[in-house]
Design brief:
mainly beta; seven-stranded mixed beta sheet; four-stranded antiparallel beta sheet; 0% helix; globular
């Protein structure tokens, strides 16, 4: 089991930036990839970005590419999501997730952190 704790959300003005962090603990050796997903009010949860736990492979949602950077610090067992040029439609709860080497989908979730972008 991997435990995930997000931080860094809050209220941001449109055009601003925010950096989210996700600390992992527990069976971190079993992590294959980590990612961020978000859920806006009244909408389904959607993929934002992911990064392999080893190597340099990253993936971004096409609609968000260019405004995001996902990175990790394995020494700190932490993944970051830098979001720039924020828009009101980026308002959502952002969830950190991990997929283990034996899973075919996300199998560990954080509690979520709220990001609110004001216009």
């Amino acid at each position: 089991q991997v435990q995930l704790v997000e931080s860094g959300g809050g209220l941001v003005q449109a055009g601003g930036s925010v950096r989210l962090s996700c600390g992992a603990s527990g069976r971190t050796f079993s992590i294959y990839t980590m990612g961020w997903l978000r859920q806006a009010p009244g909408k389904e949860r959607e993929f934002v970005a992911s990064i392999r736990w080893t190597g340099l492979t990253t993936y971004y949602a096409d609609s968000l590419r260019g405004r995001l950077t996902i990175s990790r610090d394995n020494a700190k067992n932490t993944v970051y999501l830098q979001m720039n040029s924020l828009k009101p439609e980026d308002t959502a709860i952002y969830y950190c997730a991990a997929r283990s080497t034996t899973a075919i989908t996300w199998d560990s979730w954080g509690q979520g952190t709220q990001v609110t972008v004001s216009s």
